[in-house]
Amino acid sequence: MAAKLSFTCRWVVILFLLSSVTGQTGDGFMPGSGRRREMVPAMFIFGDSLIDNGNNNNLPSFARANYYPYGIDFDGGPTGRFSNGYTMVDEIAELLGLPLIPPYAEASVEQVLHGVNYASAAAGILDATGGNFVGRIPFNRQIQNFQNTLDQITDDLGADDVARSIARCLFFVGMGSNDYLNNYLMPNYPTRNQYNSQQFANILIQQYSRQLASLYNLGGRKFVVAGLGVMGCIPSILAQSPNGRCSDDVNRLIAPFNANMRTMVNNLNSNLPGAKFIFVDINRMLQDILVNPRAYGFSVIDRGCCGIGRNSGQITCLPFQTPCANRNQYVFWDAFHPTEAVNIILGRRAFNGNRDIAFPMNIQELANLVLEPN
Questions:
Q1: Which member of 48, 179, 302, 337 is catalytic?
Q2: Is 27 among the residues known to form the active site?
Q3: 302 catalytic per annotation
Q4: pLDDT, average across residues 321-343
Q5: Given 49, 61, 120, 312, which residue is catalytic?
Q6: pLDDT at residue 270 tops 60
Q7: In 10 A of CB 141, how many CB atoms?
Q8: Which 3 state secondary structure label does DSSP give 132?
Q9: What is the pTM of this model?
Q10: pLDDT tens-digit series, residues 1-33
Q11: What is the DSSP letter of 286?
């Protein structure tokens, strides 16, 4: 009984703090500290290895990054992030005035105060995606995990109070890369023989729309949906080209998905009362970096900082492999993922960028937006 009361009291404190956070301007800082005021109560994150921060660590999975040199530039070392340091959502969390969001697999009751990261490496919109890596948590299961978190809170505090708090939180969703890299483009999957690029994009978007609507039905109201990057230019794809150039075929393959995402966001905004969805154009940002690398401080755009073989992309970063020394000059960390330097740029531009980057508004504007309850 005492343990139950203690658990309930902690959730009461959490709910009180969630409810007491008000939207702040992006220039507000906590008195006596260098940290911004919290612009939203919490952020809930769903996605794949681009933003996973440790949910695969204890899974029987080949998609894990809880070993050196991953995390070489991260305070505390390897955590499960597929980066030398920060991911994009780490930077966004800081800009929102939040601490780094903990992974679902390790989050304590107190840590849930600021949100949970449910992302899982090798995960996809489709449940079958990423099967070659064995263990992973597809988007559908990530949504179930979020519901488990909500159920845990709601059982103690009541649905109405929880719903009011969750409606003011930010939901960041970045899915789809593995549905191409570890499904459509995999020779042991039948997908490529069943659908052309437009048909496959349509299937993904139909499923994606249903999944996002599920999060809406669970109380989410402020959504950031990230598009796919320039996947034809990652080291893994470059290594398959005899001339080491970007694959136009791969870039054309994913183009319908990114195009459909803008339409999806418009439809969701029209059809789901009291919610606001924004689309972040990762492809446009990365294209600009690859075309104008020196303007961003990069000198190496065609190989990973850590990897083996052609373009350091035939085999991704191995345990205890020595990475490049000048990591801030590399666009890509390993065969698939950007460096911390790129992730920070992506996070900052998504946060305060113009309509070419974030549509119909940026993350800062979304965080400050007051939505009418439906």
A1: 337
A2: no
A3: no
A4: 98
A5: 49
A6: yes
A7: 14
A8: helix
A9: 0.92
A10: 333 333 333 444 455 445 544 444 334 445 444
A11: H
